[in-house]
Amino acid sequence: MDTMAIVERETLESLMLLTQQGDAASFARLYDQIAPQVLGLAVQILHDQAQGEEVTQEVFIEVWQRAADFDPEKGSANSWILRRARLRAIDRVRSAIATLKRDDREAFLLASIKRDGVEEQALRNVQRHAVRTSLEIMGEPHKTAILLAYFGDMTHAELARATGVPLGTAKTRVRDGLRKLEKILNQQREVLAEGVPNESR
């Protein structure tokens, strides 16, 4: 198809091709067309308007800087841009969970050291730490599915959209992920039980 005909249609693809050439005006029109969709996806994943806006800004900085990487033969501009939004938002979720993991470990250590009636809290901290350790062992794609569904409080439909997979696939990943998580946790409990001395001896 003639390049000028594509450009005249003002599709996202044509705007991306012009952005590749450093055309700031085309980049601005590209932003106007798809920014609301990028923001909506980011907010859906993060459940936070401010963080969603930050991700949107980061995505379009990346789009401008890496426009040359876009190849219309490999997919649409819409998919190319939204994939970047999805990855950046999910990275933020993972980063937040990593912070929680560190906080859980610190809370457990403090509770263990004080030993002033906080045994139950210490146990809860151990359990949370065990779950997060199990998620690391589980691996992808089930790890992300469980993180977004339970820590990110997403419905199956939201999870499917956030990760770019069919609804049935999202449901299967959550179901299989929970089964894997239960299996790993049971294995960890068995290991811990073996290390606990029998008080009746």
TrEMBL record:
Domain (RNA polymerase sigma factor 70 region 4 type) ranges: 131-181
GO molecular function, one term: sigma factor activity
Keyword Transferase included in the entry's annotation: no
Pfam families linked: Sigma70_r2 (PF04542), Sigma70_r4_2 (PF08281)
Alphabetical UniProt keywords: DNA-binding, Sigma factor, Transcription, Transcription regulation
Occurrences of domain RNA polymerase sigma-70 region (ranges): 30-95
Any one GO BP annotation for this protein: DNA-templated transcription initiation
Keyword DNA-binding set for record: yes
InterPro entries found in the cross-reference section: RNA_pol_sigma-70-like, RNA_pol_sigma-70_dom, RNA_pol_sigma70_r2, RNA_pol_sigma70_r4_t2, RNA_pol_sigma_r2, RNA_pol_sigma_r3/r4-like, WH-like_DNA-bd_sf
Highest taxon of source: Bacteria
Family statement drawn from the similarity comment of this UniProt entry: Belongs to the sigma-70 factor family. ECF subfamily.
Name recorded for this polypeptide: Sigma-70 family RNA polymerase sigma factor
Organism: Corynebacterium macginleyi
